[in-house]
Write a structure and sequence with these properties.
Length: 129
């Protein structure tokens, strides 16, 4: 279903599409295991997409993307609605778990994702063998 939603057409021959599908699928199942409700699940998937778009489209460095994550998560757990960000439906414990997940899934492997998005070209797979 994610393959259809992401509109991946070359999954069998595109390493980039396969890696991105794997990343989104792993994130989705992690969020399910965290018992996120539908709003939280949607917010988490939006956050994954936001961070990957920062890397792929805006060529953000690891440091800049970490700052963007901090801005996106600012205000979680605060009662003052003006200080709350778009992700204020997460608890502080959930926010900590999200940061831990992002650290092991994206930020720890940031150079690999930079290479995926910004390498000169992709090698095409000729066959399934």
């Amino acid at each position: 279903k994610l393959e259809e939603f992401l509109n991946f057409k070359q999954l069998k021959t595109s390493l980039k599409e396969a890696i991105l599908l794997d990343y989104y699928t792993a994130g989705f199942w992690w969020a399910i295991e965290m018992n996120f409700n539908l709003t939280q699940l949607s917010g988490f998937m939006d956050l994954l997409n936001f961070l990957l778009e920062n890397l792929s489209d805006k060529h953000m460095t690891l440091g800049d993307n970490l700052k963007e994550l901090g801005r996106a998560m600012a205000g979680i757990g605060e009662t003052d609605s003006e200080g709350s960000g778009d992700l204020n439906f997460f608890s502080i414990e959930q926010a900590k778990a999200i940061v831990d997940y992002l650290n092991i899934s994206l930020f720890k492997h940031y150079k690999l994702y930079e290479y995926l998005f910004h390498s000169p070209g992709e090698e095409f797979v000729i066959s399934n063998e």
